[in-house]
Fold this protein.
Amino acid sequence: PNLIAWLLKASKETQTLTILPENTASKTPAASVAVYSSSHAALPADLKTAKISELDLTKESPEKWLSLWKDRKDQNPTALVIIKLPLDSRLLDNYRDLALAGAETIHLRASWRQRGACGRHLTEVLRIIDDNLVNAGVRDEITIIVSGGITAAEHLPKSLLCGADALAIDLAALMALGLSRFDTSQNSLKLKSPFLLPEPPVA
């Protein structure tokens, strides 16, 4: 719980957003800077009026992306739906189809080593995706958020120059809080337990 509180405090002070798992909604203030992420189209009743939500489709077949996004969008047509997808240069047609259908924002997730699912470096894949959307005439219709291994200051301008509109950080935020014990055995990055954080000071 204290980790969530620290992340929300950091977001408030830096005027950014924190993306949190849907199951933490009951633990965070209603008027917070949190955006809740889930891997299914149906939203719980208490989140159906949220102005922004994230739909995590990183484990779904690309053929289902469009229909699942539409299912989520139908529940609250005026809300912004961020679609979280794997960063992969082999899925150019799928990204383009989402943009053509009216998807506002995609969150492209690389590995913590800054590699796409195709094995290429994050910035290389970003350039390919950006060029493809430009050629399709829909680049200005969609916002691209990128994440995965963003730790150094220079990663921000490099990613923006290669086609990203915004960045999401995870590892850097955790390290800033003094958390440095991670499990990388499954080619992913997970916090090792236990870890202790004090409650953040009240503003």
User: Anything to note?
Assistant: Residues 149 and 155 are 9 Å apart (CA to CA). Strands lie at 18-21, 34-38, 52-56, 80-86, 105-109, 143-147, 166-168, 182-183, 190-191. The first helix runs from residue 2 to 14. The mean pLDDT is 86.
